[in-house]
From TrEMBL:
Domain (Aminotransferase class V): residue spans on this chain: 128-279
Keywords: Aminotransferase, Transferase
Name of the protein in its database record: Aminotransferase class V
InterPro entries documented for this protein: Aminotrans_V_dom, PyrdxlP-dep_Trfase, PyrdxlP-dep_Trfase_major, PyrdxlP-dep_Trfase_small
Keyword Transferase: yes
Origin species: Actinosynnema mirum (strain ATCC 29888 / DSM 43827 / JCM 3225 / NBRC 14064 / NCIMB 13271 / NRRL B-12336 / IMRU 3971 / 101)
């Protein structure tokens, strides 16, 4: 058991795979187990889940810099990105980073838009003449950071995927048109939680493609019959919730929102750059380290990592320690 930032985690030594799946705090895991136990006894009714959905929604907003009224809930990133893709004019020109995660890029291609891939660092310079730039704040494959200041200055509509960033990188993304993110990695929540924060103008142009009872102006009075009566705020875009997933997110996300973001950032990037220094590499300022090394020695040393784009990916979160760094260095020595 490890303690970090006031929470306890049943995370094994050498666990450096948060970029694939985060380990919940014991509080988050307990909340979900208790909810499953109540379900197994027939002790809960659907309205019980309204509060956790609202709590997690508001906390996601605080983490990325958006008010709760402009945050919609979903289950996956791709499903929420598909709303954005469906809201662009036919044949829109969408600029993406080569190698970005496909849940961010496929929905635009599947919709028939013209999707252009360029190297991550070229996005700001190439943004003009595009209807949208869609990019991950932190690249899944190797942890590289997008140049957000330059993208903002480019003045083109932007969709940011904060999945690999929210939870360790301090974010102030109120300038972006759309910000999407999922809970099951760095936000240490169950899979089945995702959110889409919209600027006021972006919300007005986002199609409520998954219109459902929960997206109604008053969910418990919009379960039957037309006319269509969707919420005026971002709830109009809601997918009806994966209940037990939001129970966990309602514990994890307010905790993240309450943390000293600079301290979390210093801890995670400090460990990652500490590993890089031990390997003779310059600092990169990312919690994700991508190495051109064979995975076998790490596996044998009990390091949990993942292989992405032919390289080993190691992710340092707030429950990671210097012992984890040393374990990797010993394995690669
Ligand atoms: C940047 C990024 N976006 C999204 C996802 C997950 O997508 P989805 O929620 O559609 O499964 C991942 C998972 O690795 C990711 O790295």
């Amino acid at each position: 058991m490890r303690t970090a930032f006031g929470e306890t985690f049943d995370v094994p030594p050498g666990y450096l795979n948060t970029a694939s799946v985060g380990v919940p705090s014991t509080s988050t895991a307990r909340a979900v187990s208790e909810a499953v136990a109540r379900w197994a006894r027939g002790a809960d009714a659907p309205p019980v889940f309204d509060e956790p959905v609202a709590v997690a929604r508001a906390a996601f907003g605080r983490i990325v810099g958006a008010p709760a009224e402009r945050v919609a809930i979903g289950a996956t990133v791709s499903q929420l990105v598909a709303l954005v893709a469906a809201s662009l004019p036919e044949g829109a020109r969408v600029l993406v980073a080569k190698g970005d995660f496909t849940s961010l890029t496929f929905p635009f291609a599947a919709r028939g838009h013209t999707v252009t891939e360029v190297p991550l660092d070229d996005l700001p310079a190439r943004a003009a003449d595009h209807d949208l730039v869609a990019v991950s704040v932190v690249q899944s494959a190797d942890g590289r950071l997008a140049d957000l200041a330059a993208l903002r200055a480019a003045g083109v509509p932007v969709l940011l995927d904060a999945t690999q960033a929210a939870g360790w990188l301090p974010l102030e993304l109120d300038w972006a048109d759309w910000v999407v993110g999922t809970g099951y990695k760095w936000l240490l929540s169950p899979r089945g939680t995702a959110w889409l924060a919209c600027s006021e103008a972006a919300l007005a142009r986002t199609a409520p493609l998954v219109a459902n009872w929960y997206a109604g102006d008053d969910p418990w009075t919009t379960v039957y019959d037309l006319p269509l009566r969707l919420a005026a705020d971002a709830r109009r875009l809601d997918l009806s919730p994966v209940w037990h997933a939001h129970v966990g997110a309602a514990v994890a996300l307010p905790w993240f929102a309450s943390l000293d973001r600079a301290a979390v950032h210093a801890h995670t990037t400090g460990l990652a750059d500490g590993l890089r220094a031990g390997l003779g590499l310059p600092p990169a300022g990312s919690a994700i380290v991508s190495l051109d090394v064979p995975p076998e020695p790490l596996l044998a040393a009990g390091v949990a990592a993942s292989t992405r784009a032919g390289r080993v990916r190691l992710a340092f979160h707030l429950y990671s320690t210097r012992d984890d760094v040393d374990r990797v260095l010993r394995a690669l020595a």
